[in-house]
Amino acid sequence: MRIALYCPRYNHLNLLAPLAAELLRRGHAVRYWYPAKDVAGDKDDAWRALSGLVGGIHAFRRSGDGVMVDALVTVGLRVPKVLRPCRWRRRFALGYHEEEILHAHEGWWTDDAEVLTWTDAHARRLGAICPGRTAHVVGFPELDQLAGMDRAACRATHGLPATGKIFLLMPAARAHLLRPRWAGWWYRTMPRGWPWAPRSWPGADQVPSYASILTLIRRFADRHGAFVVAKVRGKTPRLGPLAEVADRVIPDLSFHPFTTLELMVAADYAVGLAGGWAVEADAAGLPHLDILAYPQEVYEHPVLLDFRKELYGGESGFWRGPKVYTRRGWEWLVSWASHVFAGGREPFRHDGKASSRAADVIEALVP
Q: pTM (2 decimals)?
């Protein structure tokens, strides 16, 4: 079977590469498609140097040449213009942090597409949006990479101390989405917080600064003699206060194996601004503290707000930490910085078979 995996963005490789490896293992002809430089958008950055960021397959081809494949795999349901001249017998949309739900709302779930989603909750939501259609629950292929990772090896790979505690710091991920637009810039740069909150921030009564949160994290790490590693994205323009807080700053060096997962296997604890990284930490068995610096209402897409509030911020959600945009939450974080660390790693919480389940669906539906 000829299978194309469309990869317009670097960070999609962490999801697509494990599936590519499984399809290759089964004997299929697999090729990544990516946009040429002249048609790439702001987020379409994978045309640069893919082969240095993924192992196991180096067949890359610019899309849009009208080629015919048996199956096309995309991340999310949306089909970019660059793919429309191409032809495929069946298309499969991999879910990635609720992109498939947003795209279903936009009307992208067409008859030629099958959705490979993450959880039963995602499948139910998709079914409610598009009655009569059923998504396939396969899990999160990115997390399959955990099965081959070793703690000592991950520390050695990144030149980290072989012994002693390592705290993984995950920086602010969504400040740029805050409304009004300038609030994201101000939040990252202001030296002190506001003793009040904008009226558009429901349930908030203050705005702590990014620098003040990082200071408390550093205080907590110093109390435990921990080595602090800040994991940043490769496109992060300026480190700002991170440079003063972290002992090491490591960007995305590879997506297969995925740098973030390697650091989570190497670390003893993760702390940072709440984001999708909590999913990876949870799967890696890594204790984590997720700090909510601003209400989800000020940055989430409206059609995803209720779903993501339950999935991440609810009582049984992935985020475990204070809402520091309230005085009570801030006081909790100040007290936490003086606590004795009592956490411990747990076994991996992923069966390593998401890619296999996704490949089963593809083989069953493409004769």
A: 0.91
